[in-house]
Design brief:
The complex is a heterotrimer of chains A (117), B (138) and C (249). Chain A has 117 residues and is an all-alpha fold. Helix content of chain A is 79%, strand content 0%. Chain A contains four helices and no strands. Chain B is mainly α. Chain B folds into two domains: 66 residues, Fumarate reductase/succinate dehydrogenase, transmembrane subunit (3 helical TM bundles of succinate and fumarate reductases), CATH 1.20.1300; 37 residues, no CATH class. A two-stranded antiparallel sheet of chain B has the order 1-2. In chain B, α1 runs antiparallel to α2, α1 packs across α3 and α3 packs antiparallel against α4. The relative contact order of chain B is 0.07. Chain C is an alpha+beta fold. Chain C has a five-stranded mixed beta sheet with strand order 2-1-5-3-4. In chain C, a hairpin with a 2-residue loop joins β3 and β4. Classes of the chains: A mainly alpha (117), B mainly alpha (138), C alpha+beta (249).
């Protein structure tokens, strides 16, 4: 039945963790940073204050997890959705490379950004 | 799937219907499923935007000013409105699905699905309020 | 008052025509007639060439599943009155090869069912002299829901993943695997992990939930698969991180 070991449980674990994290935290970030602040519903915090907040070790870990896990969550879903929408099994392997590869690159970028903040 | 049998008279080749590209338009539940899956596009896009926001923040005050101006453009506002709708849909569908995987027993009795969903919503509100509090009281 | 209702049947007669076609029949609109009764009327009174499967007529045997107006349903438990004024479109179950008219080929499903070893695999052989396998009501409740499956295959027709991915074991097979995994008398989890963690196993499911909505016996295959994913992911990490042997116990 199988040709190679199935690594989907590995990716699924990150998909699940990312789903939990993003479902709890992504909407409020979009609401605040994408709408409430730009539209002037609330006042922008000072740049220095915001930077100091982001440099808090806990904030760094939180931001890294939020970005990395959201990317792995999305990568897994998008990979399966491509297969569902295009009805082509042949797309699955290239899609997996692009999706998970993208998530890994994004995670490295996030690690660097959070580290050198 | 072609029939292997050579005996054809009473066991001719079966007919195998193929799924259509439009399959997810044919039932509201299928459509809702694809919409749920597409929330991932916005989750990923927002993760990238958050990354860019952090980079702008660490690049100094001038870069930060430029970034906040970009966020005020109509294009950005429009994107964030759509992204928020999809993100909230992601959260709600995720919470609704949680009881299917979680079996919690309290005092020997399984916790009802509704209670589990409600607990998720409460945690969601608390988390959101905490983030808003931390960010806005700077 | 309506006296008859139109039944539109998707027919496939391979020796006559290589593609399916639709044929309309006018049947009396009797109160309390199920769709299966209408098909039986057609076969008895209008057209003896119509082929379909049925047996118990009471929602237990699981052989009369068909697509009724695009939804998988047991035709014995689906009533004409629910579809007034008609017509009612009857098609063979989705995602299966059609042998003739409304008769589908279940061979692939039967093969998949065997993969998950849906039988008790005890930790050690027991003889009759050892007496009964005792089970508490709580131990029975842990899996009882999954024993109610009648293999009617409605969940396979409801599930797009089954249609998109022919390797997928499918909702009923995985739910049945869980029926034995959660049985206190069974020790076959490790063997079933090998199948359920593999390609075509539980991780091919993308949680659409249609299987549970279609299930006439409220088995909830969605829940069975989701619970497996949580257990299976744990097992996957154990096998990955723990030294050989330790994980398999």
């Amino acid at each position: 039945m199988s040709k190679s070991r199935n690594n989907d449980p590995f990716w699924w674990s990150f998909f699940g963790a990312g789903g939990v994290f993003s479902s709890f935290f992504v909407p409020i970030h979009i609401l605040l940073l994408g709408l409430a602040l730009p539209l002037g519903w609330v006042l922008w915090p000072e740049h220095g204050d915001l930077l100091a907040l982001a440099r808090n070790p806990l904030a760094r870990i939180y931001l890294f997890l939020l970005i990395a896990l959201s990317l792995f969550h999305a990568a897994h879903r998008i990979r399966f959705t491509l297969h569902d929408l295009l009805l082509a099994k042949s797309i699955d392997t290239p899609a997996a490379f692009v999706c998970y590869g993208g998530a890994i690159v994004g995670t490295l970028c996030a690690a660097m950004t959070v580290w050198t903040l | 799937m072609e029939s292997q049998t050579t005996y054809k008279r009473f066991r001719p080749a079966p007919y195998t219907p193929k799924m259509q590209l439009s399959w997810w338009w044919q039932k509201p539940t299928y459509f809702a499923y694809i919409m749920r899956e597409l929330t991932a596009v916005f989750v990923a896009a927002y993760a990238v935007i958050l990354l860019l926001t952090l980079r702008a923040l660490s690049a100094g005050e001038a870069a930060w000013e430029a970034w906040t101006t970009t966020l005020q453009s109509p294009l950005s506002i429009g994107f964030h409105v759509v992204a928020l709708l999809f993100a909230v849909y992601h959260s709600i569908t995720w919470f609704m699905a949680a009881p299917t995987a979680i079996v919690l027993n309290v005092k020997g009795k399984p916790v009802p699905a509704k209670t589990l969903i409600l607990a998720h919503v409460v945690i969601w509100i608390v988390c959101s309020a905490a983030i808003a509090g931390i960010l806005l009281t700077r | 008052m309506q006296k008859t209702i139109t039944i539109q049947v998707k027919r496939y007669i391979p020796e006559k025509q290589p593609t399916p076609f639709y044929q309309d029949y006018e049947v009396p609109l009797e109160t309390k007639w199920g769709v299966l009764d209408a098909l039986t009327y057609i076969k008895d009174e209008l057209d003896g060439t119509l082929a379909f499967r049925w047996s118990c007529h009471m929602g237990v045997c699981g052989s009369c599943g068909m697509m009724v107006n695009g939804q998988p349903a047991l035709t014995c438990a689906t009533f004409l009155e629910e579809y007034l004024p008609g017509p009612i479109c009857i098609e063979p179950l989705d995602h299966f090869p059609v042998i003739r008219d409304l008769v589908i080929d279940t061979d692939a499903f039967m093969g998949k069912l065997k993969y998950v070893k849906p039988w008790l695999i005890p930790a050690e052989e027991r003889s009759v002299d050892d007496g009964e396998n005792r089970q508490t009501p709580a131990e029975l409740a842990a899996f009882k829901q999954y024993t109610l499956c009648i293999n009617c295959l409605l969940c396979y027709s409801a599930c797009p993943v089954v249609g998109l991915n022919e390797d997928f074991l499918g909702p009923a097979a995985i739910a049945l695997a869980q029926r034995y995994n959660y049985d206190s008398r069974d020790a076959g989890q490790t063997q079933r992990h090998d199948v359920l963690l593999d390609h075509g196993g539980a991780f091919d499911c993308t949680l659409i939930g249609e299987c549970s909505r279609a299930c006439p016996k409220h088995v909830d295959p969605t829940g069975a698969i989701q619970r497996y994913k949580a257990d299976g992911a744990m097992e996957f990490w154990k096998r990955l991180l723990l030294p050989r042997g330790a994980a398999k116990r």
